[in-house]
Amino acid sequence: MPNTSFFRNLLENCIFVLAGFSLILTLAPADFQFPEMLQVAGRAHPLILHFPIVLLLLGIVFFFLPSFRKNQEIREIGEFTFLIGTNLAGLTVIAGLLLAREEYDGEALLLHQWAGLGVFVLAILLYFLRSKQASIRTSLSLLVTVGIVLTGHWGANLTHGEDFLLAPLKSETQELPTLAEAEVFRDMVQPILESKCISCHKEGKIKGELRLDSQEAIQKGGKTGPLFLAGNPEKSILIERLHLPEDDKKHMPPKNKSQLTDDELMIIQAWVAQGGHFDQKVEDSAPESELFQFASLRFDKNKSYDFESADPETIKELNNFYRTVHPLYPGSPALLVSYFGIAAFDPESLQDLKEVKEQVVEINMNKMPLQDVDLLFLKDFPHLEKLSLNFTDLGKDQIQAISEIPNLLDLALSGNELEQEDLQLVAGMKGLRNLYLWQKNLDQTQKNDLTQALTGTSIDFGFDGSGISYQLNAPSIKQDKIFFSDSLKIEIKHPIHTTELRYTLDGSEPDSLTSPIYDSPIWMHTSGKLHVRAFAQDWIGSPSSTTVYMKSGLSPQDYELLSPPNERYKAQGARTLFDQVKGKNNHTSGEWLGYQDKDLTVEFSGAELQHIQSIGLSMLYHEGAYIFPPTRVQILAKSQGNWNLLVDDQPQTSTSIQEIRSELLLYPVENKSYDRLKIIVTPIKSLPSWHPGAGAKGWVFMDEVLLN
Amino acid sequence: MEKEILEQGLNLNRRKFLSRLSLGVGSAALGSLLIPDLFSGKSGAEEAMMAALPHFAPKAKRVIYLFQNGAPSQLESFDYKPLLQKSYGQDLPESIRQGQRLTGMTAGQDRFPLVGSYYDFQQYGESRAWISSLFPHTASIVDDICIVKSMHTEAINHDPALTFFQTGAQVGNRPSMGSWLSYGLGSENSNLPAFCVLLSRGKGNGQGVYSKLWSNGFLDATHQGVQFSNSDDPVLYLKDPESMSRSERRKMLDQIAAMNDLSYREFNDPAISAKVQQYEMAFRMQTAVPEMTDVSKEPDSIVKLYGPDCLVPGTYAANCLLARKLSESGVRFVQLYHQGWDQHGNLPNEMALQAKDVDQASAALITDLKQRGLLDETLVIWGGEFGRTNYCQGNIQVDNYGRDHHPRAFSIWMAGGGVKSGMVYGETDEFGYNIVKDPVHVHDFQATVMNLMGIDHEKLTYKHLGRRYRLTDVSGHVIKDLIA
Fold this sequence. Notes:
The complex is a heterodimer. Chain A is α+β, with helices and mostly antiparallel strands. Chain A has 5 domains: about 5-160; about 185-280 and about 285-300, no CATH class; about 310-460, Ribonuclease Inhibitor (Leucine-rich repeat, LRR (right-handed beta-alpha superhelix)); about 475-550, Immunoglobulin-like (Sandwich); about 555-705, Jelly Rolls (Sandwich). Chain A has 17 helices and 25 strands. In chain A, a hairpin with a 7-residue loop joins strand 3 (about 325) and strand 4 (about 335-340). Chain B is of the alpha/beta class. Chain B has a single domain (about 1-235, about 300-480), classed as Alkaline Phosphatase, subunit A (3-Layer(aba) Sandwich), CATH 3.40.720.10. Chain B has helices at about 1-20, 30, 45-50, 80-85, 95, 135-140, 160-165, 175-185, 245-265, 270-295, 300-305, 315-330, 345-370, 440-450; strands at about 60-70, 120-125, 130, 145-150, 195-200, 225, 335-340, 380-385, 385-390, 405, 410-415, 425, 425-430, 435, 440, 460-465, 465-470. In chain B, helix 12 (about 315-330) runs parallel beside helix 13 (about 345-370). The radius of gyration of chain B is 24 Å and the shape is globular. At the A-B interface, helix 13 of A face helix 10, helix 11 and helix 13 of B.
């Protein structure tokens, strides 16, 4: 063991010098000026304070723990360590007292100061009474240890802000306000000040004479005057300091402290620019402003619900194939209830919902048969906000029950036939935000009364269609076939059952007054063309639908095509024209003979031709595909070795592009005995100028020749 | 050992697949109705994903997507460009086109003569949005919709562009948007599929739609879109056979269930109990579907609202009405396709026919949802797969011209479900060729739709072939300005 008595004596004496110095500093008046040199020493406080903490505690361990005390050498090391620690505690106290004069104030400082002094005094006592009874020694060591911990804690509160230590343990459950409730200062600016600024600018640690922990203090400003100029961020010190380069001495927060993010800078700047108010709502900012955009993402637009969640098992049991009960989103306590399946609806099952009456915010029972179902239980649902009861046959008692729901905001009653007294009940529901009341029996007075009674409610009376007339769509015609040999049944239908269908068989357009009304299927016995239109009140009459029906009583014995059809559209050749099969409305179906470059010429003969009265040609027209009516149709008959021209017709050509359709060209012929017949059909040589393919060659398509 | 585990997994999947296939009721119709946890083998990845769903309140509960297949011209509908009318026949300046690619259909043209809309435009509503005279009904609801004039896409031909819009990738086999939402949010009404598809065809030049557009891709088959038939009988094979009454059917099902129960006790195969449940589901659907598709009880004012075609099965109007009924009954995603918008020629004529098909019923859907208090919770989208060129394809006449495909700028509209109403978003240059303000990429659009449904598009993923896939692939930003 080296001789340490010299140092020990020196250090023991030093303690008294330090104690004296501390006493002077503690008692010196607040305005006493110290040399600047000492200020530097004061600022060393946060540096040196760590030494006495370690040394005093280490000393106590080596010096007083019984197992160490038995060993002479260790005990001496402990004594010596403790002595050095006491000296450094003295130095720390002095530095701390000097620092305290700079810019600290408040309760936390007082606690820290006196606790620190206490530790110093106790350490001195413990050192010099170390050889007395064990009880004194033990109690003093305990006091010193507790003192160190408390001093350190209060000191840390000064530097890092109160509750710094325990902050991580505190839960972050603080609910954000909704967008409608949020305020710019309280909910956006203040949290930034609290996390980034307030640790140095608050009661107890007022750097730059600036406090940011109360509205008054913020308005007052600091050493350099007011913090900001309302509405003028460019001339505000606050904004200037925040924007200085980080290396600048005046930049805030100081280098090495947690800096503001870009969003936070934007928020503070926008707050100052908007006037630096303390009570402005976020919603009062311009919607396109950056501040509002940011806020609208941070704050929920919906109300946040703070009631208890229901038991997940209960929720699960309430779900079945015809009813869903689920949270607004995963984790939300709010429940939405929907009913599906009219046939399976059981009014009794509504009572199950009482189990979650606290949590239900929305119920959808659209179209459920609710007639006479008791809805009174709904008034016990304190958080029910949206109720959808469209098309549910509601009556007065039910409307009464609905009007008693305490916090209802949105109510959908469309499709119910409410009476005057029901409407009066609805008119009393002043808390409604949205009301959907589309139904047929409301008159204008009732609507006006309701609108006046519910000024704060947006009411949708829906579309009733009165005063608007649209054109009906064309009726549909159903017939099994086009060609028939004896008779043919034709049925006509319209999707709207209340329409009146009027038809003609003479090729004229039906009108709403004189044309015969269709009431049952029509039986046709001759070839012809049917036109039908639909009429109804409040509607404009439909365009006409037409169909052809072709009686084909005779068939030739032999036939031949004198000109070959186009390679692509040759179907079954001449047989196609006499097969009694009507081609589909599609020229590529393989049931149509197509000609473009030459005339279609067909010749046929047979015994039955003796009785011929009419010849029909079944044609396909589709201008969009260049398929036009023929320009010329000639029918020639051979009798007694000579060909005679029976028909020479130039059918009307098209004037616009229309839908693909089938047409019948019907020609009566003199009833004479013919040996042989020839038909020549000429396609259009040059499409008219209005057509996209003007000038090109057109087509004819024919699928049948009908002989009667 | 690992091999055995793998094989067991494969067997389970095969059995699962076969058991669903065997039912035959509109194939996937029933598959999607299966109770999700009927099968023990819900994949771990799926559960992990469900847990990862972000917790925020959805603004929309359901989507109705009115897809205008073939790409309607923005220049005759919502993007008013008077300059094009003034510059009729002049060449598209190179400074505007900047050498951007063209389709093979016009790449060979000597020149690109500008052509303006044959139809006049007017401003409507409080938003003062310009709408052409082809869409008078849409104009009447302009304050309920949000027109986006700055959509752009990556594909220049129909099939890849359509596939890109629906699945987020230009090649097939990825899940459709409706499948993703079904996967992420599940079915609202367990008696109906979560994703339904309705087709109609207009009179204009048409382009095909293929079932890959509503495919579940690598997701479970329950998420596949169910195509409804265009007939009086929208879901096939649901009716009881002739001369079989409901009570007889019930007895038959009870007997089958009893037998199945016996074999279940013997073999303990979960597929057997799954089958019992499927029969029960079909039985419930027998009442749920006719209840939902019955239009005979719709009031007269509804027929007038949608137009009389709404009672003719297979028309766009009928599909809009059916879409409302499906959505109202809790179907998450109703996808309509209306074909016939591909006007390479004869545009003024065909476009008028197409617009007449869709204008009234599209607007009616908005009005109808609104009067029932459903518009707030239903997102309606109207638009095609890309736009059309500002220059003429083929012969040019003032009243007869054509437009080629143009992916660089086009217009769509959205309404309800948390979208800002009465707004026009984005701008194109005065030639209507390039976007000059607020571009919206297809992935941005998809991200925004998912956000409105309460889903973070970056978190809804599915691991397949060693990689996590999502609808927006690797890009896409929520367009906050579109959200109310």
